[in-house]
Automatic annotation (TrEMBL), chains A, B:
<keyword id="KW-0862">Zinc</keyword>
<keyword id="KW-0678">Repressor</keyword>
<dbReference type="InterPro" id="IPR043135">
    <property type="entry name" value="Fur_C"/>
</dbReference>
<keyword id="KW-0805">Transcription regulation</keyword>
<dbReference type="InterPro" id="IPR002481">
    <property type="entry name" value="FUR"/>
</dbReference>
<keyword id="KW-0238">DNA-binding</keyword>
<dbReference type="GO" id="GO:1900376">
    <property type="term" value="P:regulation of secondary metabolite biosynthetic process"/>
</dbReference>
<keyword id="KW-0804">Transcription</keyword>
<feature type="binding site">
    <location>
        <position position="106"/>
    </location>
    <ligand>
        <name>Fe cation</name>
    </ligand>
</feature>
<dbReference type="GO" id="GO:0045892">
    <property type="term" value="P:negative regulation of DNA-templated transcription"/>
</dbReference>
<dbReference type="Pfam" id="PF01475">
    <property type="entry name" value="FUR"/>
</dbReference>
<protein>
    <submittedName>
        <fullName>Zinc uptake regulator, Fur family</fullName>
    </submittedName>
</protein>
<dbReference type="InterPro" id="IPR036388">
    <property type="entry name" value="WH-like_DNA-bd_sf"/>
</dbReference>
<keyword id="KW-0408">Iron</keyword>
<dbReference type="GO" id="GO:0005829">
    <property type="term" value="C:cytosol"/>
</dbReference>
<keyword id="KW-0479">Metal-binding</keyword>
<feature type="binding site">
    <location>
        <position position="94"/>
    </location>
    <ligand>
        <name>Zn(2+)</name>
    </ligand>
</feature>
Length: 147, 147
DNA sequence: CTTGAACTGAGAACGATTGTCAAAACCCGT
DNA sequence: ACGGGTTTTGACAATCGTTCTCAGTTCAAG
């Protein structure tokens, strides 16, 4: 109860580690796991503990500043998306991700929830497929970027 | 290439264990984890190894004879649903599950995939919320069934 | 009955994630 | 700049769902 905070921030402190995680996320286009991001940080010369990466990603996801979803294998993967509610079209081969919006879907979800008396609802909706390049190239060398 | 099978089944053998797993699934309304189902089997007096439960559930899910989805925590949960493509409205409190269909959503997903040149697409769509009973009762005693 | 393939299960192994806790970094008032 | 209380960090252990191993069991065809 000794709250004497001058600036009403969220109680988070800006640290080198958090900046590093945010930076690597900004550089990556695809959804990546905590471990992959940790490896990328090491490659970039940034020394950040794995536990810190996990903690930071969770916080950012909770804040809504990044998106998190689960792969088919149940692994959590993260991505710095644009703001606002949206869903994803993800290539299984190369990981390329397209953000998509579907107002009709949002309405449908709301309607269905109401019809069944559910409140405080959330929904998860992701589409997985093979992108044109991967279907084309034959998936021999999964490429992550293209000019 | 020595295929001399008289009855063209899927190469699966009907065993006591598989019947037991199917039976417990038929008795349960909610999505349940492999471990929970294993516990239920033990309670019911059926002796089935945990590994077998995992294997059987995976096979049934692959066959499409049961549905599998992941909780927010990433745990796989299973349910014997009606046949046909559908999605779920799941209560976070009591686990009550309603199967829902959304033709418009299916069309939207297809359209979006095509627009971006994705092929061989799948989608996951689940709605989580609090059902009327749980919102009402105050969630003091999460109940799984009700007359 | 014989026999090879499918199946099972106890326990080890695995891998992602979380917990621990002392040390380090930080903020703020002095 | 200094000190003290709070937050954050990170090496490591621990947890926990899931998968692997492999010898023993069951099955069904012949
Ligand atoms: Zn996103
Ligand atoms: Zn949505
Ligand atoms: Zn279902
Ligand atoms: Zn669908």
């Amino acid at each position: 109860m000794t709250e004497t905070r001058t600036s009403p921030d969220s109680g988070r402190r800006p640290t080198r580690q958090r900046a590093a995680v945010a930076a690597v996320l900004a550089d990556v286009e695809e959804f990546r796991s905590a471990q992959e991001l940790h490896a990328l940080l090491r490659e970039a010369g940034e020394k950040v503990g794995l536990a810190t990466v996990y903690r930071t990603l969770q916080q950012m996801a909770a804040d809504g500043s990044i998106d998190m979803l689960r792969t088919a294998e149940g692994e959590a993967v993260y991505r710095a998306c644009s703001t606002g509610h949206h869903h994803h079209l993800v290539c299984r081969e190369c990981g390329r991700t397209v953000e998509v919006e579907g107002p009709a879907v949002e309405r449908w979800a709301t309607k269905v929830s109401e019809e069944h008396g559910f409140s405080d609802v959330q929904h998860t909706l992701e589409i997985f497929g093979t992108c044109a390049d991967c279907a084309d190239g034959g998936g021999v060398t999964p490429q992550v970027s293209r000019p």
